[in-house]
Structures are given as structure tokens and as C-alpha cells.
Amino acid sequence: MAFKDEQQAKAYWSENLALMFKLLAIWFVVSFGFGILLVDVLNEVRFFGFKLGFWFSQQGAIYTFVVLIFVYVFKMNALDKKYGVDE
């Protein structure tokens, strides 16, 4: 990567880390919060015939993680273009 100056590189990595922490927070809430902590509350709701808490712990966290990967790729491509370090 070729940044114009050190300040631009720091701004890029700052935005990159902020994005990563936001996505990791979403993943944590879905996997740990919905799949473990709130499972009893969510089990009162049915989703495609399954209890919602069970669905989040078995499938929902995985689907969310895959979606977060695509969101990260899309956002990082936009961030790379913003700072002129895209491929």
C-alpha cells in the first residue's frame, strides 16, 4: 500500500479498526447474546417451525457471520477507494 503520508495511513487504519470492532460487536451480540443469554426469551417465538433461540444458536449466528464477511469486503473496498489504495 502506498499512502501519501503517515497521517493518511493512520486515518485508514483507524477507520478499518472501527469497522472491524462494529462488525465483531454485531457478531458477539448475535452469537453470544441471542444464542446463549437470550435463548429462553427467544424460544417463545417460532421461526420456520423452530424455536427462535435454537435457530440463532444453530443457524442464525452462522448466517450472520457469512453476511458480516460480505459487508466487511464491501466496506473495505469502499475504504480502499477512498484512500486511493485499491487494487
TrEMBL record:
Pfam families: DUF4212. The keyword Membrane applies. The chain crosses the membrane at residues 21-42, 54-74. Keywords: Membrane, Transmembrane, Transmembrane helix. Residues 9-86 form the Sodium symporter small subunit domain. InterPro entries: Na_symporter_ssu. This is Sodium symporter small subunit domain-containing protein. It comes from Pseudoalteromonas byunsanensis.
